Amino acid sequence: MNGVLIIDKPAGLTSHDVVNRVRRILGQRSIGHLGTLDPMATGVLPVVTGGFTRLAQFYLSSEKVYEGTIRFGFSTETYDAEGEPTGEPQVIALQWEAIDREAARFRGVIEQMPPPFSAKKIKGVPAYKLARKHKEVNLKPVQVEIKEFEILSCDADRVQFRARVGSGTYMRSVAHDLGKAVGCGAHLEILRRTAAAEFSIEDAHTLEDLAAQAGNCSERSGSSPGLTGAPRPEGKQELQEMFVHPRKLLPQFPSVSADEATAARIRAGRPVNLPELSRARQVKVFAGQRDLIAIATRVAGSLFHAKIVLSGAE
User: Which end of the chain is more exposed for a tag (fewer CB within 10 A), N or C?
Assistant: First the structure.
């Protein structure tokens, strides 16, 4: 099964844990995700299955939207609620105006220091492995873009926020650095991703809902869920409805339809002439309404060559 499935990731699981669960539920090994979420975070985790794992390259720079809570009064080693405090908590009473004034410094293109407990590599070693061993972590600041950072409410020692950020932004670092700016320390207490690229929380399904639907399909087809008993084709229709419709993927690329002969040429890796609907450099090629078969790149005029083939290449 090729597709994109939006999982509402629960707290306590890594993104890799979610991928493994989806593998077991769907009985399919070729599965990945489009953007890691920390274990404490919840929300939008796009999961790609089958040939659609090749789409990951187009989502490396996707923007994300988050909502969450920052707790002030002390910082932590990990910059979030899962880490050990780095000092004694302070009793504070936040003022919305003061917090919003400091938050303005984090809007736009800024230099951000990644958390020491992160996957950033130092001489090939992930920073978190060094941090866990209490070794020195020498990370360099990176340029990130925070397109929106809105303080929604302020209550005693906590603020609620909404942020829209570019790729590579750590909200844990935003919380930590905001605490330093205020002068009392802070850490990220709650984080929920409500959107990533074109996917929103309204598109998301829980792992429990996915398992229930896959189980229903398996029962109707007389098989058992899991790697040894994936749903048969006649039981997949309702399960398929949980996936994002392929026409909604990569909205920045125009869609073109290919007839049977053209689709065969594309699947064979041969250049083809496609309807010239625009001067777009890349297009999504469909065979029928749902069968996204390739992302094609313009060679010249109406001549295109498949950058990646998503279905039927075998």
Answer: C
Cα angle 165-143-72, degrees, rounded to a multiple of 5: 60
Please calculate the CA angle 94-98-99 and round it to the nearest 5 degrees. Answer: 70
* Global pTM value: 0.88
* Residues 212, 195: Cα–Cα separation, whole Å: 24
Interval 46-71: pLDDT, tens: 999 999 999 999 999 999 999 999 99
Fold exhibited by the domain 246-309: 2.30.130
Identity of the residue numbered 42: T
Sign of CA dihedral 283, 285, 286, 292: negative
Q: Classify residue 35 by its DSSP letter.
A: S
Q: Active-site residues: which are they?
A: 38
Residue 164 has pLDDT above 80, yes or no: yes
Delimit the domains of the chain by residue range.
3-61+199-240, 64-196, 246-309
CATH code reported for the domain at 64-196 = 3.30.2350.10
How do the residues of the chain divide into helix, strand and coil, expressed in percent and rounded to 5? 30, 30, 40
Nearest to 160 by CA among 93, 65, 66, 68: 68
